[in-house]
Amino acid sequence: MNDHSTDEQSPRKLTIAIDGPAGAGKSTIASRLARKLGYVNLESGAMYRALALKAIERDVSFDDETALVKLAQNLRIQLEPTIGGNRTLMDGRDVSSRIRERDVSEGASRVSVHPHVREWMVAHQREMGAGGGVVMEGRDIGTKVFPDADLKIFLDADPVVREQRRMTQQKIKGDVAANVAAELRERDRRDRTRAASPLAAAADAVLIDSSSLSEDEVLTRIEQLVQQRRNR
Ligand code: DC
Fold first, then answer.
1. How much distance in Å is there from the Cα of 99 to the middle of ligand 1?
2. CATH annotation of 14-223
């Protein structure tokens, strides 16, 4: 699919897909991997999150597929890699923090069930990743967005571990923690059971269970796989 032309000095630029459920460590790993390789890191979830935020701001229902597609068509989403991770701009405005809040997380999972919303997202994700040299993470990158990706990783972890990581990440404690855990489980269920491109490992994905691995260990494993793919 991509033009992988290369010369002796520069290794060919791969397309790397990292899929998996929330809290498995995708964002951190994708961002660190991209920085190490000098690749672009595209966090596809941020696009669904930006659309959900726009729907909240415009009072559009998460269930109104037609209205959501219209919103998407007029939405300008920019994903800018920074040292600390991705910055997300929506219509030129920095919404990086806002899109991590609970109402947007819930909304992103709900807007992403609609097939026509997904078509728009997938088309844009393909455009953004065209040419390779990209680490794209999400739920359907290996199955739908880049089915010919050079390397596909399915990063998973035990649900309890994923919940704990989310709490630590977002510094959540006490009563709120139980609600956040319940929301995460519901998002997971929705992402895995929706009809359009549900979260699933591609048949040729390498499964990595990060439950008892450190970030460094996961990264090392993926780097070994990158090296193998480059040598193919
Ligand atoms: O990766 P994330 O938690 O930021 O994703 C937010 C939601 O967006 C997630 O619940 C499902 C949806 N999503 C998707 O359907 N497909 C993707 N490629 C990425 C995210």
1. 12
2. 3.40.50.300
